Amino acid sequence: MVDLQGQFEEIKEEVLNSFEEILDSTQFINGPHVGRFSEDLKKYLGAKHLIPCANGTDALQIALMALDLKPGDEVITTPFTFVSTAEVIALLGLKPVFVDIQEDSFNIDPALIEEKITKRSKVIIPVHLFGQSADMEAIMAIAEKYGLFVVEDNAQAIGSNYRFADGREIKTGNIGHIGTTSFFPSKNLGCYGDGGAVSTNSEELAERLMSIANHGSTRRYYHDRVGVNSRLDTLQAAVLAAKLPRLDAYNQARREAARRYDDLFDGMNGVLLPYRSPQSFHVFHQYTLKFSHGRDEVKAALDAVGIPSGIYYPVPLHLQKAYQHCGYHAGDFPISERMSEMVLSLPMHTCLTEEQQNFIGETVNEAVNKTVSNYH
Ligand SMILES: *Cc1c(COP(=O)(O)O)cnc(C)c1O
Fold first, then answer.
1. CA 102 to ligand 1 center in whole angstroms
2. Burial of 118 (0-12, 13-18, 19+ CB in 10 A)
3. Residue 305 and residue 243: Cα distance in Å, rounded?
4. Section 4-20 average pLDDT
5. Ligand 1, closest atom to CA 127?
6. pLDDT over 70 (residue 84)
7. Is the sign of the CA dihedral 56, 199, 150, 189 positive or negative?
8. Domains in the chain, ordered, with CATH?
9. Are strands 95-98 and 74-77 parallel, antiparallel or unpaired?
10. Mean pLDDT value of segment 240-263
11. β-bridge partners, 179
12. Dist. CA 182 → ligand 1 center (Å)
């Protein structure tokens, strides 16, 4: 699904030089590379404050902890996402309130948010799924109307942006009150282990976020609040520092690979290409096709010739065993449920060759033709 080797070859010398420097200096915790990378990423996003942390799940948890919520407060989010988003809500004793997605973008449908708002609603977490921004204009307007916080889960869309009706273009992660991201190796900006970050334009939130990530402390051995231990590793910061200047080129390579896939799949019977929102710059964390039927047969055909593919996500969160206590049932979020049966993501990375893509295209085409003839 991803090719980490190809990228490594390009940055090998830089990374190994930094590693040697770090190992020689023994500054393993919060070494200078962490500060430098954080500063660079802050500038890239256009944010006023950036706090690095240990992973994207921690980033979400730290963000929610900074909002001074009370147990039972409600957090509105999508059921069609990676589990982290709902996990941190549950861990903090908050209540996940799911809202179904838009069929084209796979992102939370703003038209369905207002009916879910109660006196206990405090936060909306839009997830910019697969590399494309949620409808932030509508989401920010609802948040403002009801006095809610917006925490953007930007783990899959770093480098993407959203264009508002007035022409302002803002990077995803820098639109809501807090943005969170992950540097898991397969993400668009990935390190060689775990990593994450939280950003904000609010001085007050920044102070809280920083303290929470550091045991609730701003002065050593004095703890003002309950926090966590969540740091970006110095070695990982060095990897990210080498990759960040290349992020836009990486995303461009993903977009070009996506366009080549489009050419291969356009017009194929029962196959829908990934939608591009006119408001967002799609950075293709995933290239996800929708199959009106025969998705599993196509996946089996790809498996049979050694082509990896992924179903993101096979079970929407409201139907997961761990979240049964939330009281949702099959049928509650029909679009998420249907999408989980239709989607298939293909290999997507910055080193995909035309030859590889042609082979993938032919394999899918053959499988589709076979399932179509079975249906007739
Ligand atoms: C990857 C991911 C996360 C979690 O990131 P980790 O660094 O693995 O903890 C959270 N949300 C979404 C949408 C993700 O894709």
1. 21
2. exposed
3. 32
4. 94
5. 13
6. yes
7. negative
8. 4-99+106-245 (3.40.640.10), 247-375 (3.90.1150.10)
9. parallel
10. 98
11. 152, 199
12. 6
- Does the C-beta of 172 come closer than 6 Å to ligand 1? no
Half-sphere exposure of 53 (CA within 13 A, CB side): 30
Q: Ligand 1 pocket: which of 55, 60, 82 to mutate (most atoms <8 Å of CB)?
A: 82
Residue 6: band (very low, low, confident or very high) from pLDDT cuts 50, 70, 90: confident
Mention every residue, 6+ apart, whose C-beta is less than 8 A from residue 6: 349, 350, 351
Distance CA 308, CA 302 (A): 7
pTM of the model: 0.97
Whether the ω angle into residue 192 lies within 30 degrees of 0, i.e. cis, is no
Cα angle for residues 292, 134, 101 (degrees, 5° grid): 40
Q: How many CA atoms lie within 13 A of 64 on its CB side?
A: 30
Q: Is 126 exposed, middle or buried (0-12, 13-18, 19+ CB in 10 A)?
A: buried
Please identify, by atom number, the ligand 1 atom nearest to the C-alpha of residue 57: 9
Convert the pLDDT of each residue in 181-198 to its tens digit.
Answer: 999 999 999 999 999 999
Reduce the DSSP state of residue 369 to 3 states and report it.
Answer: helix
Q: What mean pLDDT is reported for the chain?
A: 96
**How far apart are alpha carbons 154 and 275 in whole angstroms?**
18
What's residue 376's pLDDT? 57
At residue 76, φ and ψ (nearest 5 deg) are -90, 130
Looking at residue 116, its amino acid is: K
Rounded to an integer, what distance in angstroms lies between the CA atom of residue 126 and that of residue 136? 8
pLDDT value, residue 132: 98
The closest alpha carbon to 160, from 40, 287, 243, 44, belongs to 44
Reported as a pLDDT band with limits 50, 70 and 90, residue 4 is confident
Q: State which H helix or E strand residue 234 sits in.
A: helix 234-243
* Percent of residues, the chain, with pLDDT higher than 70: 99
Tell me: the pLDDT tens digits for 303-344?
999 999 999 999 999 999 999 999 999 999 999 999 999 999
Average pLDDT value for residue range 369-374 = 80
Amino acid found at 365? N
**Ligand 1 close to Cβ of residue 154 (< 6 A):** no
